[in-house]
């Protein structure tokens, strides 16, 4: 029986996680991975989705828990099906055989032990992408050194009051900035293949939030200091989701003025490697059905 006292994420809540239970941990998830979907997905950046799609594995539960999460049914609602480590490795095989450009692990932080075991059982010949909120411990990332080819972390906040209010994590930037430096160290600079697909490197995503452009500019200030080591993906797809009671500013999409302000600032800082999402990308069309496809 796989059972341990968990300190995988910065919460370090010390919950005892067994294969099937975690009643006391912040994330509330068992040691055994719970999945909501495993399928080709076309909602990522062009160098990740390509023409054939990214082999995306959506993990259920979350150790961060943002109030505005677009995947609320699986992050807060924890919907999904438990799978063994062997089954997780088989899913990697199946997605690879289906023609995926990569294996894209979405929000795997709280299952890092099982992810590592599954990748030891079967390391795909296509790149493995670790797609995370950025709220990571460097000690946990060390376990994945050599197994992950591409890191796709968020950098959501510099403002500690904002990260406390919206994600219950006042120390978000402290952990995430250290984690991103470790990710960049592991992967080295971004490498694209002849088809323009990312095979190595770290690309940091920042989702602009309505009413919080000041925080976005601070995030970009920091990213400018590491722009030779990472790519940046600036995202405008914010769509009001979840229970936003008490967060009036989040109950509307971004305005064009907010998007342009942040985009122009990014240009002024000379951050040129990466992507800027199309203005008006709001909506729920990029959220797939969490119906256990491929699980
Ligand atoms: S992964 Fe979950 S159980 Fe482990 S420390 Fe983080 S919140 Fe606690």
Summarize it:
With 295 residues, this protein is of the alpha/beta class. Helix content is 29%, strand content 19%. It has helices at residues 46-49, 72-75, 85-97, 112-121, 138-142, 160-167, 172-187, 213-225, 256-268, and strands at 4-6, 15-17, 34-41, 54-59, 81-82, 103-106, 128-132, 150-153, 191-192, 198-207, 231-235, 274-276.
Q: Can you characterise this structure?
A:
- This protein has helices at 46-49, 72-75, 85-97, 112-121, 138-142, 160-167, 172-187, 213-225, 256-268; strands at residues 4-6, 15-17, 34-41, 54-59, 81-82, 103-106, 128-132, 150-153, 191-192, 198-207, 231-235, 274-276.
- With 295 residues, the protein is α/β, with parallel strands linked by helices.
- The chain has a single domain, classed as Aldolase class I (TIM Barrel).
- The strands form two sheets. Strands 3, 4, 5, 6, 7, 8, 9, 10, 11 and 12 form a ten-stranded mixed β-sheet that branches. It has a two-stranded antiparallel sheet with strand order 1-2.
- The longest helix is centred in the middle third of the chain and has 16 residues, at 172-187.
- It is globular and about 50 Å long.
- Residues 6-9, 11-13, 15, 17, 22, 25-27, 63, 110 line the site of iron/sulfur cluster.
- Iron/sulfur cluster (SF4) binds next to strand 2.
Number of strands: 12
Class per helix and strand makeup? alpha/beta
CATH domain class: Alpha Beta
Largest sheet: 10 strands, mixed
CATH architecture verdict: Alpha-Beta Barrel
Which stretches of 5+ consecutive residues score pLDDT under 50?
Answer: none
Could you tell me the mean pLDDT?
95
The name of the CATH superfamily reads Aldolase class I
Proportion of strand residues: 15-25%
CATH fold-level name: TIM Barrel
Shape: globular
Work out the count of structural domains: 1
Counted by DSSP, the helix tally is 9
Residue share in helix: 25-40%
Bound molecules: iron/sulfur cluster
Report how far the terminal alpha carbons are from each other.
Answer: 22 Å
What is the N-to-C order of secondary-structure elements (H for helix, E for strand)? Answer: EEEHEHEHEHEHEHHEEHEHE
